[in-house]
Specification:
Layout: E1 9-16, E2 19-28, H1 30-46, E3 51-62, H2 64-80, E4 85-88, H3 92-101, E5 109-110, E6 123-124, H4 132-147, H5 152-170
Parallel strand pairs: 2-3, 3-4, 4-5
Antiparallel strand pairs: 1-2, 1-6
């Protein structure tokens, strides 16, 4: 069995005409969060996607930004209609993290093993980001969503969000790069440039 990438790789493909699937290998962090969110939101808005499935069988760790990004995408899916964001084949480490965060029941889950195996048909999602403002904004928004969760999760992150907002107010603004080029049709989705702005949800 091939070694799991330590820093995290995200792959994506259309599972069917209305289902966009992601496979996370290694560590899922703030680095993967914005590109994954941007592609998912584009396909929800313009590509005909209704459901999003996130395969976590090969995921060794999720940080708070990644979990908050999944919650943000879940809200986006719900706003579009009858679809769902489903976690597939969640690994033992990710199950423990979700339990510790009090997020066990926040996502529909498919206990069936993720597809795994060969990467044929999957495309690696580029993780580069040149827009520091968009990156920071996504981190903050992810934690704001976590702060809104009832119970211990929300209580834990309310103070974090206050500190982040105070730090942002005191920091000088970071110039944004020129707008990214338009994204090709999502029937054969190519991820938008990672520096672009995610949808405001």
């Amino acid at each position: 069995m091939a070694a799991t990438p330590p820093q995290g790789v995200v792959r994506y493909r259309w599972q069917d005409p209305t289902t966009l699937a992601f496979r996370v290998e290694g560590r899922a962090t703030m680095v993967q969060s914005l590109p994954l969110r941007k592609l998912a939101e584009y396909c929800l808005d313009h590509g005909g996607a209704r459901d999003i499935r996130v395969e976590l069988g090969d995921c060794a760790h999720m940080d708070s930004t990644f979990m908050g990004t999944l919650l943000t995408l879940q809200k986006s899916v719900q706003k579009h209609g009858k679809g769902a964001l489903t976690l597939v084949g969640v690994s033992a480490p990710c199950s423990r993290i979700l339990h510790q965060m009090g997020l066990d029941d926040m996502f529909p889950a498919d206990a069936a093993a993720a597809a795994g195996g060969a990467n044929e048909g999957w495309t690696v999602l580029p993780l580069e980001t040149d827009d520091a403002n968009a990156f920071k904004r996504n981190v903050r928004q992810a934690h704001e969503v976590l702060a809104d969760v009832p119970g211990k999760c929300g209580e834990q992150f309310q103070g974090v969000v206050r500190c982040m907002n105070q730090a942002e107010q005191q920091a000088p603004p970071t110039p944004s790069p020129p707008p990214a080029a338009a994204v090709p049709a999502a029937n054969n989705p190519t991820p938008p440039a990672a520096g672009g702005e995610p949808s405001s949800r």
